[in-house]
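Supplementary notes (optional reading)

For those who missed the lab, this is the record we used. Protein: TetR/AcrR family transcriptional regulator. Length: 191 residues.
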Amino acid sequence: MAKRGPYGKGIERREQILEAALRTIAERGFLSTSVAELAEAVGLSQSGLLHYFGSKEELFVAVLRKRDEVDAAAMAAEYSRPESLLEIVRRNIEVPGLVELFTHMQAAAADPRHPAHEYMHEHYRTSGAAFAELLRDMQRSGDLPAHVDPGQMATVFLALTDGLQSRWLIDPTIDMAAHLRLAWDRFTAEP
């Protein structure tokens, strides 16, 4: 077996850090998790951990990217149709710390100089395109009315989802899935 070398080991270590950060933030919350705790969870110093990412903000952006990979894999393997979005929202209820992280980074991304700016831009472009394509597939199969504009609907639903998640962090009694289902029914109703 060939040695993986320092580059391969660095990639593996980075993945270990991201997996530990996903777990820790999901369990404890973003605001209750320090870089020192994340470093300790993987047996590194703070500076050793940040060596793999450059800064605390870039670490958190990498955590969000990793979470997107996990969501994309789950959608491809388990979900289809608009239920995909509802299932992600239902799963997010189980990991409020990651919702909290996303919400904080989303607000910080308004500043083009913040490391989350480019991530959020790409996140919305990619997720919007994927959801719009799912909607086009539904139109081709006759499961979605022709009057619905898939690109517009994808933008509206991603914004609605983000807004509901922000509200849910403040008031956990909000049934995000029920609100999304209501919006879906209204948006797809024949004019």
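If you only remember one thing from this example: Residues 6 and 172 are 45 Å apart (CA to CA).
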